[in-house]
Amino acid sequence: MVPSTVRTNLKTALTAITGLRVMDYVPDSTNVPTNNAFAVIGQLSMNYDYTLNRGFDSATCNIIVMVGRMSEKDGQSRLDGLLSSSGSTSIKAAIEADKTLSGAVQTLRVVSASPGTITSASIDYLSYQYSVELIG
Amino acid sequence: MAIFMGNKVAVIVGTSTISSFVSTVSLNREVEAVTITAMNDNIQNMVGGVEVSSVSMEIFNDFAAASVNSLFEDAIGSKLAIKLIPVTGTVSATNPSYSMSCLITQWTPISGSTDSAATASVTFPVTALTKATS
Fold first, then answer.
1. What does the H/E/C string look like for A34-78?
2. Three-class DSSP category at A11
3. Are B38 and B108 in contact (CB under 8 A)?
4. Distance (Å) from the alpha carbon of B17 to chain A's nearest alpha carbon
5. Which residue on chain A is closest to B10 by alpha carbon?
6. Distance of CA A131 to the CA centre of its chain
7. Least confident of A26-30, A59-63, A107-111
8. Nearest residue, CB atoms, B9 vs list A52, A109, A111
9. E strands of B14-118, at which residues?
10. Half-sphere exposure of B9 (CA within 13 A, CB side)
11. Which of A30, A116, B21, B126 is least enclosed, having the fewest CB within 10 Å?
12. How many CB atoms are located within 10 Å of the residue A100 CB?
């Protein structure tokens, strides 16, 4: 498993969601478009030696998705669409559409999504942190 | 050789190395204990009987052609040659190989759960075993 390839291919998978701006690295600052969403592919947490003789490793990748300001109802509605387990705006469906990430891993699963807020430039953004398990 | 990690075991089935699909493997060598306790014994007495060794593996399944599923499922009821080497690489006195013939008595082609990769946890009886140091 090559972490940079995994992040790049996760980004590619997520760009299938219309209007979702995706970064495959952690930015210094954010500029969240109003009524739109912003995703950051986080660093991988690696667990080596999932199988014998350096066969495969496992990893967890956190993806942070945030939308406009916390006071905006539209932001929450937008997150609901991303949170859905299926449909054209679903983060889980977009990532699991190709569970090998074009051959970068053996398999993956979007395990969970936890709500929270991200503060940037003194502005609170609604967010979800997704956890993706990968084997490869 | 010194203490070593068990994460480099070579698992070779027939001519296929399947180490990258195996998360755990163990070879358990055991002989039957045959009781020969007699009337005048105050405590049980035994002698070693035949060897009843077995090999156990946790295998991640793969249905690709010639991969692990076909390897084992096609062999159910027959014997497969399995070779284990403690540390992948050259076989030596401190890194001996164990070559065995195993009766494929079981296979689990489907093992589904919501939160983990598909695996087969199997134990095969060993019907012939050779330890080599070169």
1. CCCEEEEEEEEEEECCCCCCCCCCEEEEEEEEEEEECCCHHHHHH
2. helix
3. no
4. 10
5. A53
6. 8
7. A26-30
8. A52
9. 16-17, 22-28, 31-35, 46-51, 54-60, 79-85, 97-103
10. 22
11. A116
12. 13
CB atoms within 10 A of CB B116: 12
Q: Is any Cβ of chain A less than 8 angstroms from the Cβ of B23?
A: yes
Residues contacting residue B5 through CB under 8 Å, at least 6 positions apart: none
Q: pLDDT tens for residues B37-77?
A: 999 999 999 999 999 999 999 999 999 998 999 999 999 99
Strand A58-69 relative to strand A37-47: parallel, antiparallel, unpaired?
antiparallel
Task: Tell me the backbone φ, ψ of residue B68, rounded to 5 degrees.
Answer: -60, -35
Q: Is A55 on the interface with B (CB under 8 A)?
A: yes
CATH number at residue A61: 3.30.2000
Structure tokens at A100: 């090998």
Torsion region of B119: left, alpha or beta (phi above 0 gives left; psi -120 to 50 gives alpha)? beta
Q: How far is B34 from chain A (nearest CA, A)?
A: 37
Question: Quick check: B16 contacting A, CB < 8 Å?
Answer: no
Which residues of chain B make contact with A52, given a CB cutoff of 8 A? 7-11, 19-20, 22-23, 25
Q: CB contacts < 8 Å between A and B, how many? A: 38
ipTM of this predicted structure: 0.83
Please give the C-alpha separations between residue B127 and each of B30, B41, B99, in angstroms, as whole numbers: 12, 34, 11
Q: Which domain holds residue A22?
A: 3-135
Residue A70 has pLDDT above 80, yes or no: no
Q: What is the mean pLDDT of residues A71-91?
A: 85
Per the structure, the count of domains in chain A is 1
Place of tokens 């690696």: A46
For chain A, percent of residues with pLDDT exceeding 90: 65
Contact, A86 vs A96, CB < 8 A? no
